[in-house]
Structure to design on (232 residues):
């Protein structure tokens, strides 16, 4: 009854579980490397479906207008719909599957707990314990996802020069990264950029750091700071 009363949430729960399943079989290619590539695409397509359903839930009344598009781009679900479309037809990159896998795992775990509560307050204690441990590490998981989002930017550039990526991919991914940086619901990308900058500045200001390395890092920090969008 609980599942039937929340059909859209249930559909997203199933698609997230399928995303976790496909992502796991890509990261751990138990069925062979050839099959792993197909699971990579399935995971991203399932994530795209989940993101589209979530976006529909957040913005149910679609309008073909600039205002609606601007509003949609503020939603995290729209960001990851774009993310799935960027990588679904590209060369499989293990780094790109971790945000999809971990976000799906976190959201699926939250809804699984609701399903268990609807069934019985004491049902499946072992599973509840696993879900509680996952929830306790949520902040660390979100930071790891943000780290993946950031380091995928140079990875897309490397893929371009190695012949495994398209010319447009780094530019589209840069747009995705600016959306994540400006996210209202998830500040972890912004936080990680700040923390990385503090760590790098601390290291290069040590006397043992060569001058040319310090200048290169400072120039890089200045360049990346200019590219960062203004956050309200």
């Amino acid at each position: 009854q609980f599942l039937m009363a929340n059909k859209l949430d249930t559909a997203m729960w199933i698609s997230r579980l399928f995303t976790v399943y496909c992502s796991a079989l890509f990261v751990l290619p138990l069925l062979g490397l050839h099959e792993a590539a197909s699971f990579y695409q399935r995971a991203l397509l399932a994530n795209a479906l989940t993101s589209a359903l979530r976006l529909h839930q957040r913005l149910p009344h679609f309008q073909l207008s600039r205002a609606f598009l601007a509003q949609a781009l503020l939603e995290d679900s729209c960001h990851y719909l774009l993310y799935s479309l960027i990588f679904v037809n590209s060369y499989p990159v293990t780094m790109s599957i971790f945000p999809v896998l971990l976000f799906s795992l976190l959201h699926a775990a939250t809804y699984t707990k609701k399903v268990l509560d609807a069934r019985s307050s004491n049902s499946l204690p072992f599973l509840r314990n696993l879900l509680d441990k996952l929830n306790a590490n949520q902040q660390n998981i979100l930071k790891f996802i943000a780290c993946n989002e950031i380091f995928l930017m140079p990875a897309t550039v490397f893929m371009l020069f190695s012949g495994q990526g398209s010319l447009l991919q780094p530019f589209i991914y840069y747009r995705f990264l600016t959306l994540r940086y400006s996210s209202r619901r998830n500040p972890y990308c912004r936080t990680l950029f700040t923390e990385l900058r503090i760590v790098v500045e601390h290291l290069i200001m040590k006397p043992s750091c060569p001058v040319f390395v310090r200048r290169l890092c400072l120039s890089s920090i200045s360049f990346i700071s200019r590219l960062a969008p203004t956050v309200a």
Q: What stands out?
A: Residues 1-184 form one domain. The chain has a mean pLDDT of 89. The chain has eleven helices and no strands.
